[in-house]
Design brief:
By secondary structure, the protein is α+β, with helices and mostly antiparallel strands. The protein is built from seven helices and 14 strands. It is 32% helix and 32% strand. A hairpin with a 3-residue loop joins β1 (11-14) and β2. The structure holds uridine-5'-diphosphate (UDP). Residues 95, 97, 103-106, 134, 180-182, 203-205, 221 line the site of uridine-5'-diphosphate (UDP).
């Protein structure tokens, strides 16, 4: 499917960074990656040149790597610069965040200094709910809200740890430190848990491992969040390093 053919398809949902279209098959959707960028629960808005195409490629490569390592994803096929055919899934209403090094909200909420390496990586669950500002949840809160079962939380934790192990090792080979990242999961029509959404510089903190300067090392969306400049260049550099490592 090309970018032009998708325009005639039925738009099911438009999010901050992607549009979801229906296809002739109810079990298959098309994801279109936009250049729009938002931060701080959409209070800050902008565009990052070519971001959609970069994130589509980055996600494609990382999903390929994860599939090889036994982590199933919703991706069927990447069909153009910005489009993927994906399996329809019921999204688990949790953002699963994995942290290796303290940054972002962890520093803000706990006082742990930016850049502190965590002895054990953290797996955290946030409620996917913009009206509530995506709050951090506990297992007991998730149970009280009946969001998902304890067994599902165990599965999510285990998969998130596997993704972390695979991506940390891969990014290290690219000369990039995987600081933290956010995953989303969904269940397909057979009830199989699949990795969904995207894994890209929008959803990961990625630092140039060889760069000690706190601002210069940032290759991800923090360049946009913190007005560090050269946002698109940071994203492109991540893709270039991934491509050179895969070839
Ligand atoms: N993240 C994301 N979407 C969100 C919230 C966080 O992709 O809605 C990613 C973010 O890019 C970072 C990680 O999850 O890689 C941890 O984010 P954090 O909780 O520190 O929140 P932030 O500082 O972005 O508010």
């Amino acid at each position: 499917m090309t970018d032009s053919s998708v325009r005639n398809a039925q738009k099911l949902y438009e999010g901050k960074a992607k549009i979801i279209y229906a296809t002739d098959d109810p079990e298959i959707l098309v994801t279109y990656f936009k250049d729009d960028a938002t931060a701080f629960n959409a209070q800050k808005k902008g565009q990052i040149a070519n971001k959609g195409a970069i994130n589509c490629k980055v996600t494609t490569h990382l999903y390929g790597l994860l599939t090889e390592k036994g982590v199933e994803t919703h991706l069927i096929e990447t069909t153009s610069d910005r489009e993927m055919r994906v399996k329809r899934v019921d999204i688990v209403p949790l953002e699963v965040v994995v942290r290796n090094i303290a940054a972002g909200s962890l520093c803000k909420q706990t006082g742990i200094a930016l850049g502190t390496r965590l002895e054990e990586s953290l797996v955290e669950f946030y409620y996917k709910n913009d009206d509530l500002g995506d709050p951090l949840l506990t297992r007991d809160r998730i149970a009280a809200m009946k969001l998902t079962s304890p067994d599902m939380l165990d599965q999510l934790t285990e998969k998130a740890q596997t993704v972390n192990a695979v991506l940390t090792e891969f990014f290290a080979r690219c000369g990039i430190t995987l600081v933290d990242f956010k995953l989303e999961f969904g269940t397909d029509k057979d009830g199989t848990l699949l990795l969904a959404d995207e894994i890209s510089p929008d959803t990961c903190r990625l630092w140039n491992a060889a760069e000690p300067d706190e601002k210069k090392r940032v290759m991800d969306k923090d360049r946009f969040r913190q007005d560090l400049g050269d946002v698109a260049a940071g994203y492109q550099a991540v893709l270039d390093r991934i491509l050179s490592q895969m070839s």
